[in-house]
């Protein structure tokens, strides 16, 4: 494990969520880039790098991290799905290699909470993605989102019929997920608590068999629940 220098806490915690970040990537240049960028981001409270899956899983069991940054090439030794199941409060951000970004099968095995393209990785993009994760939003490059939605629409007619029954409230939440709203924004629109929104979002994901918000939207399109 390589410790990244912790940035002194000069922010007001009451106005900004600050995150403990774990990093597990394979490429040395990518590791060095993240090591340089993360301490400079005000949204980051602390960060640590892990080069071995066993060390990562041990640290996750002993310490509380808010976000785990992975590269798509590391999905096999440290399966994203298993880590998310073992640590339900952990947000995962996957840095996609160009080939994986073009592959539906690669994305299917990477059920993350957010995605960034490696070739578009900058301090500003990383800061924005981390803030979105802190706000219960899903960071995703526009072209990647369009690709997923386009493929979902093309394959919709190939799916067997399946009945998913959403309540009227869940249908409203689904519509807001399609619009890309955060839990806080949905709560404001529906005039209910954020806790209530989280419960409804979880119910929608469960009924759709989706691992995250984007997967829920894609599945809803395939099933004809939304246009």
Strand order of the largest sheet: 1-3-2-4-5-6
Our measurement of the CA-to-CA distance between the termini, rounded to an integer number of angstroms, reads 47 Å
Strand percentage, roughly?
A: 5-15%
Structural class: alpha/beta
Helix content: 40-55%
Uncertain runs with pLDDT below 50, 5 residues or more? 7-15, 155-161
CATH fold-level topology of the largest domain: Rossmann fold
Number of strands: 6
For the report, how would you describe the main beta sheet?
A: 6 strands, mixed
What would CATH call the architecture of the largest domain?
3-Layer(aba) Sandwich
Keywords: DNA-binding, Transcription, Transcription regulation
InterPro entries: Sig_transdc_resp-reg_C-effctor (IPR016032), Tscrpt_reg_LuxR_C (IPR000792)
Organism: Streptomyces smyrnaeus
Protein name: Response regulator transcription factor
